[in-house]
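=== Per-residue structure ===
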Amino acid sequence: MDFLRYAERAATMVNAPLEDEDDLRALLADRPWLAERVSAADVRTLRRLRRDLRPVFAEDPEAGDGADRVVERLNDLLARHPVSPFISGHGGQGLHLHVAERRSSVAETLAAEGLMGLAIVVCDLGPDRLGECQADRCGQVFVDTSPNRSRRYCSDRCSSRANVAAFRARRRAATAP
């Protein structure tokens, strides 16, 4: 099981529009075995989970007890969405862990994967690896996988926009009378 990928999928879910089943199917385009089982109840459950996950990413672990709040929020979510890991050996992949049974709902599966992925990232890499884009008017969340914990933007697009805006502001300041 690739917990980092599950954490990144959780961030993608927080950022994605989830208005209806088609939005969730689009989010699961690379996982057709899940996409075919999507229901309206899954969409409702995942919208609540997204709302509850956003503060985990938005918390500043460097500020006071921010790291403790990240851990507390994740622990609360893990209690509300219990994970039942089991060992599997299908598809010639060798033995590996799954965090939700095949008969689980789509929402239960995504919640279990996302929460375990985020929990492992926080434990192994630290709560400062979860972030919210610092670009004006963005608000997307991300998992920072950079080697030096320096990521501040959700995408290259937001990073470029911020850098261009900063460059233009410096240039205006330098040419101002």
